[in-house]
Amino acid sequence: MRASAEQLASAVQALLKQSELSPEDTDKRFEQAFDVDRWRRLVPFASIGRDGLGDDNPARLSDVDSAREKRRLDCEGYFRLPQVFDPALIARMRRIVEAVRADGWPVAFAFVFDEFWSIARSPQVASFLESAVGEGYQQNTVVWAHWVAGERRVAGWSLHDDYREGGDAFLSAWIPLSDATVENGCMFLLPTGVSRGISDAIDTDTPLSPRVVRAALQDVIALPAAAGAMIGWRGNILHWGGANAGSAEPRLSLALEFRSRGVRTSKFERPLIDPRAPLPSFRLRLFAITKALREYIKFEPLLLRYLPLAERIFAETSDASAAVSNTPPAS
Ligand SMILES: O=C(O)CCC(=O)C(=O)O
After folding, report:
1. Is 35 helix (H, G, I), strand (E, B) or coil?
2. What is the pLDDT of residues 41-91, one digit of tens each?
3. Best substitution site from 78, 177, 239 to test ligand 1's pocket, by max atoms within 8 Å of Cβ?
4. Domain 5-322 CATH (choose: 2.60.40.1930, 3.20.20.100, 3.30.930.10, 2.60.120.620)
5. Contact of 227 with 94, CB cutoff 8 Å
6. What angle do CA 104, 110, 115 make, to 5 degrees?
7. How far apart are CA 88 and CA 93, in angstroms?
8. Cys-Cys crosslink for 237: which of 37, 81, 166, 233, Cβ 3.0 to 4.6 Å?
C-alpha cells in the first residue's frame, strides 16, 4: 500500500518537529545570540557597531547602467546590475555567512554584522535606489540570507511575489555572494504583464489554459548574476529560486527591501529604518532576523528546527522594534 500525500506530509512534519533544538540547546543559543563579543570572536574580520562602512566600500555603478536598468524596471518590473560591489567586500561577506553556518545558525544570522546592513548605503547604490523608489526612501526590516546547497535538485524559494500592492513604492534587492548560475539555482522571474495574469489565476484558483502556460514558460527570465551584482524586482513580480541542476557550488545571497517615504506599510515590514541614519541597533537586527525566520518557514521548512529559539529572541527584542519611530501604519 502506498502512503497518501497527506500521510507523507504529516510524516515529514513529525520528522521536522523531532529535529527541533532541544530546550537546553535553545537556552544556550538564546544566550549566545545576545552575546555581541561571541559574534565578534566567531567572525573577527566582520564588524558590529561600526558605522560608515557604506563609504568604505564604494560601489561601481555607471550612469549608463543605472539608466538602462531603471528603464527595464519601469517597463518589465525588474533590474539587473552587473558587478556593483567591491569583490573584497563580497568575499568577506561570503566568509561571514560560511562562519555563521558552520557555527550551526541559520545563515540569516549574518545580519547581526554591519556589512549586511551597510552594503546598499554607498552613494552610487543609494542614487539608483532613489531613482527606483524616490527621494528620502526607507529600508524596511525584511531581510534574509540564502544558502542553496550545491547538490542536484536542491532549490531556492518557490514561486511567490513580495508585495503585490507595492507598486512603484516597493523594491526588492537581491545580492549574490557567490556566482548564481543557471546550474546552481539562480533567480527566475516572469516580467510584469505575465506575472499579473498568473497571480490572478493563482489567487482565484482558476486553471490556466495550456496556451497561457506555454506562453508563460517561454516568457520566463533567468537571472544568472555574478557575485557582487545586484538584481531586483517590484513587489508584484512572480519570482523563484531555481533548482540546482548538478553544480557542486552552493548559491549564497542576501535580500533587502526598500520603500518610498511616507507610504503605508504592512506590520511585517515594520519598523522602517532610514538608510541615512546610523545602522540599526544590535537588538533590532536580531528582531529583524527572527521576524523573518518565523515567516519564512513556509519557504524553508527545515527552519522549523529553530522556531522556538526564534520565538524567544523575537519576543525579547520587540522593544527594539517599538523604539524605532514608524511611517503610517496599514495592514
Ligand atoms: O533566493 C531565493 O531562492 C529566493 C529569494 C526571493 O525570492 C526573495 O528574496 O524574495
Report:
1. coil
2. 999 999 999 865 555 668 999 999 999 999 999 999 999 999 999 999 999
3. 239
4. 2.60.120.620
5. yes
6. 155
7. 9
8. 233
Q: Specify the ligand 1 atom closest to the Cα of 156.
A: 3
| pLDDT tens digits, one per residue of 179-206 | 999 999 999 999 988 877 888 888 888 9
Beta bridge partners of 188: 222, 240
Q: Which residues pair with 81 in a beta bridge?
A: 230
Q: Report the atom number in ligand 1 closest to the C-alpha of 242.
A: 3
Q: Read off φ and ψ for residue 299, nearest 5 degrees.
A: -95, -30
Percent pLDDT > 70 in the chain is: 95
Distance from residue 156's CA to the centre of ligand 1 (Å):
7
The rounded Å distance from CA 23 to ligand 1 centre is 31
What's the Cα-to-Cα distance from 258 to each of 110, 132, 308, rounded to whole Å? 19, 9, 29
Q: Which three cell numbers stand for residue 152?
A: 542536484
Q: Is the CB of 94 under 6 A from ligand 1?
A: no
d(C-alpha 146, C-alpha 176), whole Å: 9
Mean predicted lDDT score pLDDT of the chain? 93
- H helix count then E strand count, the chain: 12, 9
